[in-house]
Amino acid sequence: MAYWLDMDSFNGILKELSADNVVYAPVKMTGKGAFSGTDLVAYREISGVEQIEFKEKSRFSPKEIVFPITQTLLYFTEEEYAVPGTGEKGIIVFCRPCDVNAFKRLDEIFLRNGGRVDSYYRELREKVRFFVIECAESFDSCFCVSMGTNRADGYDVFIRAAGGGFLCDVRGDLATLFEKFGGPAEMSLRFIEENKTKVSIPESVDQSVFGHGIWREYASRCIACGRCTVSCPTCSCFTMQDIFYEDNPNRGERRRVWASCMIDGFTAMAGGHGFREDHGDRMRFKLMHKISDFRKRFGYNMCVGCGRCDDVCPEYISFARAINRVDALMKEAVENV
Ligand code: SF4
Ligand code: SF4
Q1: Which residue windows are transmembrane per the record (predicted)?
Q2: Which ligand has the nearest atom to the CA of 320?
Q3: Which ligand 1 atom is nearest residue 305's CA?
Q4: Cβ neighbours, 10 Å, residue 157
Q5: Would the CB of 264 count as within 6 Å of ligand 2?
């Protein structure tokens, strides 16, 4: 069912939903961007639809809602431990189609990888409902069409912001609420069908690419800042930290904290050895994970083509171009056989 709502009506819905849900959406924060005089679009809790940034792409993804940057897994004393709860409320996430597809990738890693379930992730993820924001047009760095992630399913509401109001395709039990506040409407779903940036994914990547000079080129450029992985909606690596309280060192908490394969220390081992010190090797590892290794296990690519890694890299390294270069190398290798 489709409904038309003006801003006040939509806020009426959000007010009712907020009684049982925490609502997150991309929000523009003036002056908080990485560079002087720039803004930041990132996910925050909202109370009104006017807070949502519908036009710009968010720099960070909504993954931090189900996979927090820092998450306390348990509090411990000398004798016992306690696992913190996540509250009773559900979670509503306003996000774009590529990000809904990114959650599917996170689900594979946290819920189905190796037959183990990450209970911390599951507890938050089971609460999530998606309100998908329609992309009016593709951003320059997006390549979702190449990755097959331009369409989304599994949402509760699909929203088109237009003409000062909102056209919404509503599924499931929320239809009653939208009927109360909105008027009936016609809506045909629109998804991005072409991006300016296009990638060609190699069917397979063999060892012949591993020693190629392109990785040395990336080594000379990449400064190992990790921004590409922090902004990526599908990167899911973490490390563990035990915090001991100053007033009683026998008590504390165990936290998990985001980690990145691009930064120093990720492969640190006892004795000071690290097996992927070269920044180009890290780039190769990340690329292989996103377009080959994950696919070998789950049948589709990990990268959703959101283009955030290209947007944030201070060295202007393009991940999309790197995929195309590897594809060209593989085609060249096949021709030379
Ligand atoms: S690798 Fe880059 S384009 Fe792909 S999902 Fe991650 S941030 Fe988006
Ligand atoms: S954002 Fe760019 S410079 Fe920073 S780690 Fe990623 S590829 Fe390297």
Answers
A1: none
A2: 1
A3: 3
A4: 23
A5: no
Q: What pLDDT digit, counting tens, does each position of 56-81 carry?
A: 999 999 999 999 999 999 999 999 99
pLDDT value of residue 336? 77
How far does the chain reach from its first CA to its final CA, in angstroms?
56
Ligand 2 proximity of 308 Cβ (cutoff 6 Å): no
Dump pLDDT digits (tens) for 200-218: 999 988 888 999 999 999 9
Please compute the mean of the pLDDT values over residues 225-231 and round it to a whole number: 97
Nearest-CA residue for ligand 2 atom 4 is 225
Q: In angstroms, what is the span from residue 81 Cα to ligand 1's centroid? A: 37
Minimal-distance CA residue to ligand 2 atom 8: 222
AA identity, residue 194:
E
- Show contacts of 18-22: CB within 8 Å, 24+ apart: 18/47, 20/88, 20/89, 20/90, 21/89, 21/90, 21/91, 21/92, 21/129, 22/87, 22/89, 22/90, 22/91, 22/92
State the pLDDT at residue 207.
84
Q: Is the CB of 222 inside a 6 Å radius of any atom of ligand 2?
A: yes
How confident is the model over 307-321, as pLDDT tens digits?
A: 999 999 999 999 999
Atom of ligand 2 nearest to the CA of 226: 5
What phi-psi label fits residue 273: left (phi over 0), alpha (psi between -120 and 50 degrees) or beta? Answer: beta
Tell me the two tokens of residue 72: 């306390």
For ligand 2, is residue 228 a contact (CB within 6 Å)?
Answer: yes
pLDDT in tens, 34-48: 888 999 999 999 999
CA distances from 3 to 169, 183, 186 (A): 7, 5, 7
